[in-house]
Amino acid sequence: MKIIVLVKQVPDKDAILRINREGTWIEESDLSYEANESDAYALEEALRLKEKHGGEVIVCSMGPQRVKTTIKDALARGADRAIHIVGDDLVHLPPLAAARVIADAIRGEAADLILTGLQSDDYGYAQTGVIVAELLGLPHATIVIEVEKRDGLLRVKRELESGWYQWSTVPLPALLTIQSGINQIRYATLKGIMAAKKKEIREVQPDVTAVSGLVHQRLTKVYFPQKSKQTQFLGDGDAKAAAAQLAEKLHAEVRII
User: Fold this and answer.
1) Residue 159, phi then psi, degrees to nearest 5
2) How far apart are CA 80 and CA 201, in angstroms?
3) What does the alpha-carbon distance between residue 182 and residue 187 come to, in Å, rounded to a whole number?
């Protein structure tokens, strides 16, 4: 199987976030970065499928030169080669534009399977993966927590709401978005780190102007929630009257009863 794993580099989850001067995003100049959590689980699942069925795992990531640290870590964990879609202006593309750039970069690989995380830890749109599937004309399944390959088909277990699960059969080639926790992520070994230095990282220079017409949304303001509280005394010491007033507020104002 030829498996492509889409891995996004995001700010470290333990980093102290500060809003930039323009109030449009976080200040990125002093941040450290890591692989998006659910994408790391997708990579691990790809490596396990390769170990069981043979084939090749290709990592694809998009962004400036700093993204290479995340790519090299994926290669050290066991990926065979990588595709780096290079560009400083690619980090904040909305899902449709980002998906078009990714689809154009990986289309020629003719992969049997594309894996990506359920959503990114920074924007959290959970749209890019399924749009890539649509652009490439592939069947897809989302929120996948178990994968089995049988006779050219994939049998996948999906997490639904309220504790429900769904088993689905997906023909290959296909795209899956992987839920965090599907497996136990391996560490990069010293042998893997040394081997990664010799593995191919193919750079792709996309035409950003070609997707400018696909930018249909814009982030105008980022701010921290304003904390506020207000205390109201009900009933003036009369428990029965207080209970009646509370019930009325829960019904008319809060609307939970």
Assistant:
1) -90, 125
2) 10
3) 16
Predicted structure pTM score: 0.84
Closest by Cα among 150, 118, 126 to 49: 150
Q: Which helix (H) or strand (E) holds 82?
A: strand 81-86
Q: Closest Cα partner for 69 from 25, 123, 31, 111?
A: 31
Place of tokens 């309220």: 162
Which has the closest alpha carbon to 131: 201, 187, 203, 214? 214
Residue type, 216: H
223: CB partners within 8 A, 6+ apart: 19, 23
Task: Tell me phi and psi for residue 2, to 5 degrees.
Answer: -100, 115
Helix axes 37-53, 68-77, angle to 10 degrees: 30
d(CA 90, CA 80): 24
Residue-wise pLDDT for 12-45, tens only, equals 988 888 888 888 888 888 888 999 999 999 999 9
d(CA 25, CA 221): 7
Return the closest-CA partner of residue 106 out of 202, 170, 244, 23. Answer: 202
